[in-house]
Amino acid sequence: MTIEVEAPRITAPAKVNLFLHVGDKRPDGYHALQSLVAFTRLGDELTFSRDPELHLVLRGPFAGALEAEADNLVLKAARALQAHAGVTHGAAITLTKNLPVASGLGGGSADAAAALRGLSRLWELKLCDGALRKIGETLGSDVPVCVTCTPQWMEGRGEKLTEVKAVPAMPIVLVNPGVGVPTAKVFAALKERRGTGLPLPPKMETPAELLAYLKDNSNDLEAPARAIAPVIGEVLTTLESQDGVCLTRMSGSGATCFALFDSDEAAVKAARAIGERRREWWTAATQIEST
Known about the structure:
2 domains
């Protein structure tokens, strides 16, 4: 008797760099990094069902931004998984794109990681997280950290990961001004860097402990990104002016910025106010997921 596998539905949550320090450029052309990475409850969504061939359907508010891509990262992940497992299975994949594209939230990488997780389940491959991360390394620097979607201490070019046991949940507001900031251009404009000499972070069980730790760190890419796209400064200033805000920062190489708040009510109110004031900006209130 054949047991039918339930069609997986996988969330690809937004990745947030709570801080990001840059070190020297490596022989392979990548920069050494250190970052405390967290994930939010908000993200893209992927569904999978059996099909003789690989197909990808795009839906959601930001689907249009991906339609011009000749080869979506989700399909690249699917083919990489096929090659690793030595299978020729197909799948019908639907990607509901809720997050802005190329926004510093790891959207494409999170989608690729979700594809690895979902297809591994659909195809009954029984691969561990470590194996999926190894495949993810071939797809992009941010893919491995998105495999488990849990808070991680990220080093190397993104492939060296240590799970952080205690990061508290906190309300967060995400704002993207709708401008593209090419990652390579941001790194090329980088003038000052904190380096990668920090030890693993301490155990942080309360929002106050997390905030105290983050205030001693920063995002080295924020200054060059602001020089390229001054609107990032406008976003940060707008977030800083909201009631209940605890900390503001840019995520990744931009252009999405975030603010941590002291309550869900304050975060929702701030997101609503910013959205009404700047309708051309994408704004969302959500929460950092705790460990």
